Structure formats: C-alpha cells, structure tokens
Amino acid sequence: MNLKAHINTVVLFILVVLSTSCSLVKKPKINLLNEVILPKPLSVTASESSFELNAKTKIFVHEGSEELLNIGHYFANLIKPATGFDLKVKSTTTMSNSNSIYLSISKLEPKFGKEGYILKISDKKVNISANSPEGIFHGIQTLRQIFPKEIEASTKQKQLWFIGTGEIHDYPQYEYRGAMLDVSRHFFNVEDVKKYIDMLVVYKLNMLHLHLSDDQGWRIEIKSWPNLTEHGGSTEVGGGKGGFYTQEEYKDIIEYAQERYINIIPEIDMPGHTNAALASYSELNISGKVTELYTGMKVGFSTLDTNKKITYQFIGDVVRELSEMTPGPYIHIGGDESHVTAMEDYIPFINKVQDIVLANGKQMIGWDEIAHADLKANTIVQFWARLENAQKGVEKKAKVILSPANKMYLDMKYDSITKLGLNWAGYVDVESAYRWTPSTLIPGISKSEIIGIESPLWTETITNMKELEYMVFPRIIGHAEIGWTLDSLRDWNDYKFRLKKHLERLKIMGINYYSLDSISRK
Ligand code: TNX
Known about the structure:
alpha/beta, eight-stranded parallel β-barrel, seven-stranded mixed beta sheet, 16 helices, 35% helix, 19% strand, binds ligand TNX
C-alpha cells in the first residue's frame, strides 16, 4: 500500500469512528407508545431507546422468498423519495446483521392467522415476522406509520430517521376489510384506481370491490359482447365521455392490487342497474329494442329480461370472462334496487345467476335483496339498507358483509354544508362513521356470521380523485379501525385524538381530506 492510500484509510477510519460515536451520543429516547398507528394494534410495548434508519440500513429477507423480496423492495421504494436512501434488499440466512430490517416467515401462534405480524424494534435492528407475506406487508404499513410523518414526503427531507424501540403484536378481528369504488357513474382510470389502492393499504384494508356496470356505463371489456364497452361504456353521469378497462388493463389493476395484498372483487350489477347493457344489445330487453344511453342519477328503472334464454347466455359469457381474469374467490352480482323486476321473476333469476357463478368456480356476493332467493352455502349477502334482508340471509346460512349506508356510505355528505355527495341515508360525520360496532348493529346477527365490513363510494356526484379523497378521508380510516381493531380497544375520544395527529401525515401525503374542524367544535 502506498503512503497516500494508507493516509486515506486512516482518515476514513477516523471518520467512521467519529460518525458512529456521534450518532451513539445523539441517539434520542423515543417512546413507541406515543406513535399514532391506525388502525390501532392489539398491543404495543415500548423500551424507550431508538433505531436509526440511514443510508447504510439494509433490508434482509428470509432466504429464498421471492414474495418477501418484493415486499422489501416495496418498502425501499416507499421511503426513497423522502429519505433519499437507496436501501439494498437482500436474501439472508442469519439474523445477526445490525442496522437492518429483517423480514421473515415464522410460525406465530395460530391466532395471528395469515394477516397478523410481530414487529420488534431494537436499537440495532427491526424485525418483522408473520405466518405469511400478507402479515409482513401489514407490518410494513405499521413500520411506515412509526417513522416521522415526513417519511411520506415526495421530496428529499433534511432530517434523521429515528424510531422508538419496542414490540408490537397485531392481527385483525375481521377477515374482510374492504372499500368499494363505483367506476360506472363516473369513470376512474387505471392510474386512479392504483392510487386508491395505495391509499387503502396504509390502513390494512384487503378488498377492493369495483362496481363495473350500472345504468350510466359499462366499464369492463367483454370480448364476446364488444358493444357493452364500445357503446355502453361511452357515457357517464352528467354527459362526460365515460371510459372502460380493456381486459389487459383490468389484469394490470389486479396484478398491482395482488402485489399489495388487495383482492379485487368485480361487480356486474343485475337484473336492475343495467341500462348501459340494455342500450348496447336489443335482445336483452323485454321490448326487444335498445334503450337510450342514460346520464342522469335516477335508480331502479332498468331490468334485463329475466325470461329469455339469451339473458342467461349473456350472463354466462360475462361471468366466464370475468372469472378467467379474476384470481380472487368472489364475483359480485349486484341484485339491488331491481324495482321494475317482479319478485316472481327476481327470485329465479338470482338462483340461476348463483348457479352460473358457482359453475365458474366462484363464490357469489350480492346486495342484501338477494336474501329473497335460495342462497347456497357459501353465498355472501352485503347489507346496505334493510335489516330484514340481512337477517333473512343469515337464516338461510349466508355470511354477511356490513355496509350500513348511514355509517359507511362514503358518498353521504358529512353535514348540511358538504358540497359533494348525497344525503338519502342522512349525514355521516366522522364520529358516526366511527362510533358503532358491527356485531351489535343488527339484532340476531353476531360476530361469527359477519365476515367483515366494506366502505362503498358511489360516484354520482364524484368526478375526480380530489373529490374522491375528500369524501373518503378521513372516514375510511375509522372504518379500517372498526374492521381491524378489537372492539374493546376502540374508543371515540382516543381515536379522535389520534386521528387529528394523523391528519398531518395525510397532508404530507398530498391527500385532500375533509378537515376535522367540525369535530373540534364538539
Ligand atoms: C343506492 S347501495 C345504490 C346505488 C346508489 C347509491 C347512492 C346500492 C346497493 N344501491 O345504486 O349509487 O344508493 O348512495
């Protein structure tokens, strides 16, 4: 080694020693219990030291797991803009590396299920373990929320990234925690849907139900019935140009969602809410003639002809093409507000559609009206309006998803001065969205019959992402906590306090949320 190289090495050594000892001296005490994590985890214990994430931190994943490597890269990319760090993600067999974030599948107690996780933070490393990758992904969302809120910034921040040490144990109380987006009344393109998915995963939601057809527009390409999108996809409420997803685009959404542990549930609403299809194919109409395209906001005026063979051929084709593209277990068939379909036609219609869905290897979900039909063992009833329907469903041994309109409809106005939205189910302020308990909502329906809850956003009055965000946030965060967190750990005043702090984070994320000034007045 020549002299110059030697001097360089010595200087470098001194620098390294200085920098590590400096950071040791500076290491702050941070109390993990003070961090806001939404939804609230099952247990948090704090050990009042801190871990620093810096440019040298490495993400290690348990050897051989492609999926965990992907999650590692997801986290590295997530924090890259704000930190400027390009964290390495590597496979490993040992856990002895310091300054690392270690992701591993291990056998946690069965109660953690496939979505639970344990997050351990020491001053040297972060460790997330779970029974399956879903759990690791949820653990990553918790880790993300523990970092200073500036971690969400889209530009490089000048600051250090310390987090408090301790341990978090966590798993959900309901397996189905969903959102629904109506892309029919107003179309939202692939980029918008991906953005929405990215917002949902922060709160550990795991289902996105897409309302793909209604009177005002058909939004998914069906190759055997091309006019559905060509003609039926060309409109939306208010006369805009509509739009639709090609099958390639739909698969792209599914893949994006899958990488984030979100299951996509496609809905084709029938036999009502079908004007876009009726305007595209004459043979589906009772009159045998096509209808006009519709851009208004009325509901309940359209129906497929439930007595024609061609109707079931049509549904068979649609369900087959959808099932082929959809890896998840569910197909949603709507079934709501079929006001111009006679009950004696409605019941055999739903029965036949249920057979079609089952024949395609899928499980049927329908809005609560389907409880009038003969439900098969694994059919799911989605409660939105009528308690009697949900109760009837449970009597018929169906499981239920709860979407009570007066608590969960994100298209309901917050209050009388909200510009967007509707109010047929009343105003849904942030408090009433949060202050209820699924298992005590409907007499006769207990926790074991409820697979979970879902927050629908109908879009008659919602035309773009800024408007969507305003109606969704922050109410959906409360719904996410209802679905995930044990009822006994939830309290409105405590939640209100945590949510207010969390709103500063939403601001940095650039989300156009509804301000909580109105709840501060209370
Ligand atoms: C009822 S909820 C509907 C939708 C409307 C919504 C508006 C349900 C199953 N049907 O068609 O868009 O109200 O809030």
